[in-house]
Write a structure and sequence with these properties.
The chain has helices at 29-50, 94-107, 117-120, 129-134, 162-168, 187-200, 205-217, 226-231, 268-279, 292-299, 360-373, 380-400, 469-474; strands at residues 54-61, 64-72, 88-89, 239-241, 245-247, 265-266, 283-284, 287-288, 303-304, 309-311, 316-320, 323-331, 336-342, 347-353, 416-420, 424-431, 434-439, 444-450, 457-462, 481-487, 493-498, 506-509. With 512 residues, the chain is an alpha+beta fold. The protein folds into 2 domains: 7-395, DD-peptidase/beta-lactamase superfamily (Beta-lactamase); 409-509, Lipocalin. The strands form 5 sheets. It has an 8-stranded antiparallel β-sheet with strand order 2-1-14-13-12-11-10-9, sandwiched between helices. It has an 8-stranded antiparallel β-barrel with strand order 15-16-17-18-19-20-21-22. β17 and β18 form a beta hairpin. The model is unreliable at 1-22 (pLDDT under 50).
Length: 512
Amino acid sequence: MQRIIAAALLLGLSAISDVVNANAQQPTQGSIEALLPEFEKQVAEGMKAFSVPGVAIGIIHDDKLIYAKGFGVRALGKPDPVTPETIFQVGSTTKAFLATTLAQAVDAGRLGWTDPVIDHVPEFQLADPWVTREFRVLDLAAQRSGLTAYVNDALTMLGYDKQTLIRSLRVAPQLGMFRSDFRYLNIPHVVGGEVVAKANGAPSWFDSLKASLLAPLGMAATTATAEAITAAPNHAQGHRLADKPVAVPFHPSFPYALGPAGALNSNIPDMARWLRLQLGRGQFEGKVLVSEANLDVTWTPRVAMNERTSYAIGWVATATPRGRIIWHNGGTAGFGAHAGFLPDGKTGIVILTNLDNGGMPDALAMWFYDRVLGNPAVDNIALAAASAKGRREAAQAEAAGFVPGPLSPLAAAFAGNYASPILGDATVALIEGKLNLMLEKTEAQVLLEPNRDDPYLFQARLAPIGAFVAPAEMSGGEPFVRLRFETDAAGKITQMRWLSPELPHAFARSAQ
């Protein structure tokens, strides 16, 4: 869910192919175990380079969990160690679970991959009517909508519900070509969850998931709420990286409001069962849970991410000189994850960390894949650390582009009532010399910080008040959007417009 999906794409992988190279090195349990001493050194180096408090790792081969180990601590400053059974948020690795539940519903004849989405979820609507009509079930989890990447994800932190998230797609800018451009989104997966739930007559996507996958796989530790992970005696505490790792709280808003896009909590034994199903091509312990044909649909590349890697359906598909990899990573406000496998090598790996994903899970996984397959070796940890440093510097440079200043005398004219067709009513008020925004539907309070050089320009921070203390802590108090008060030719305020294409919302000024 954070912008970490591309981290592993910098590691020199080859273009995708459906055919294993003739020189492919087939892994064995012995060859994998021979790598473990050096692999554990890489884990230690990665934890140091990325300041990760704790890691849990599982390796699957030939339908068995052959390695399961925890490193570090569940929470920084506390002695409790990470074990394979420790529960972590697994972030966007959840998307592959959505893909498989879609495949199961297709198997059952309850929907088709090419069904129009509006036939199942009539409220689904995009800005372009043609794209709305043409959007198919398969497209919901294929990251090829052409909509603005990460559009409206931040609405979860502001307390908006599932129905509002789905409606928010109506104003999402169509910045790329439909079915041609890779753009990473989360909210279409929320729609996908509705498709599955309705097809199966279930109260929710997670209820359907429990019945069709989690229960048959024996994934009893896997849940999808903030309450469930905090109730688990052996759970990791999430951290975000400031000067050092800082604990972040669990809260229903994120990632849980995004459901099938990233809500799952799990551990190594459960995730190992999940990868065994994938490596078993839909079979688990002698029982077929999903057909090989429809599982293969989820692994098939749909849109190029670069010349080497493509997005499939809930999975990323990459090929190396000696074999293909099917994988996905995950990042929440306090956790990072990687789950992937070699479909032609009967081998998979799960890496769970309790720090927001700066690239370490992917780096370790790619180190493992390359050496298991016998690919040319690179320093994955160093490459990922350099990439993470570059992203931090870019974010700092972007933040430096806004210089705060004193509140202008014009600010009194900004106070008043506003309304958005998607987000509802909002009130701007001048309180004790500061401008504040209240989103009436969720009661989120937002602090508006003025720009030094432009009296109409502000940046918005979520106020840590009431139900929004935890979401504000998750973000570290960082601004979530810049906004501008706009005027007509006479200089009268007409609207408050949020300036990010990721939050493309305008609030019209109500009549005074």
